[in-house]
Fold this protein.
Amino acid sequence: MNALNILSGGAAQGLVGSLAAKFKALTGLDIDGEFGAVGAMADKLRQGMPTDIVILTAALVAKLADENLVVRASIMDVGLVETALAVRSADPRVEVTDASALRAAFLAADAIYVPDTKASTAGIHVAKVLEQLGISDEVAARLKIYPNGATAMRHLAASGASRPIGCTQSTEIISTKGVLLSGSLPKGYDLATMYTAAGTTTAAHTREAQALIDLLIGADQQELRVAAGFLDGRD
């Protein structure tokens, strides 16, 4: 196949998509693969799915390096991604500045769209936040859980609920038509996750994988990273 195979967290899907044309012009290759919950993507690599490059959380990429599944020397930080609130484009924004406001926002929603609460970075965090706020049981029936944040946001956009809300990574909100980034989570309930790219030890397209990493982290792509929702947390 004339494509670079990627396994990536959903957080990077918008950024990778914005770089696809430049990447093809440089290498002649398309970008193929999957974007989803980081835990699920790592497991696919472990199970032997042909993969040239991964873009996952820094902690998870470090584990994969220890397992000799990615090339340690190729690891590069792309940027930080916040977990944030989302609303449908036509709905008023929900702004929360403290725990009380965040609790009220979740309780006021009749549907809460989130990614996998066991395998995705944002979903795991949402479950933790609901527990911290003491409302896990109260809102359990309202949770609409999907394999990844992008899918959750597409369903939020199409939701027929009266007062739906979403919570996932900002990049997945920004890249989904029909939803708006409503605001970050307040201090004490916030999460900013470093996403990291690395070539795999079984890559069929080693040079091309490095070319994509160079594009992802390049200084001349900073505007694209910011537009996609990445914060500059790299050293």
Remarks:
- The longest strand covers residues 76-88.
- DSSP finds ten helices and nine strands in the chain.
- The beta strands are 3-9, 30-36, 53-57, 76-88, 111-115, 143-146, 164-169, 179-184, 192-199.
- The radius of gyration is 18 Å.
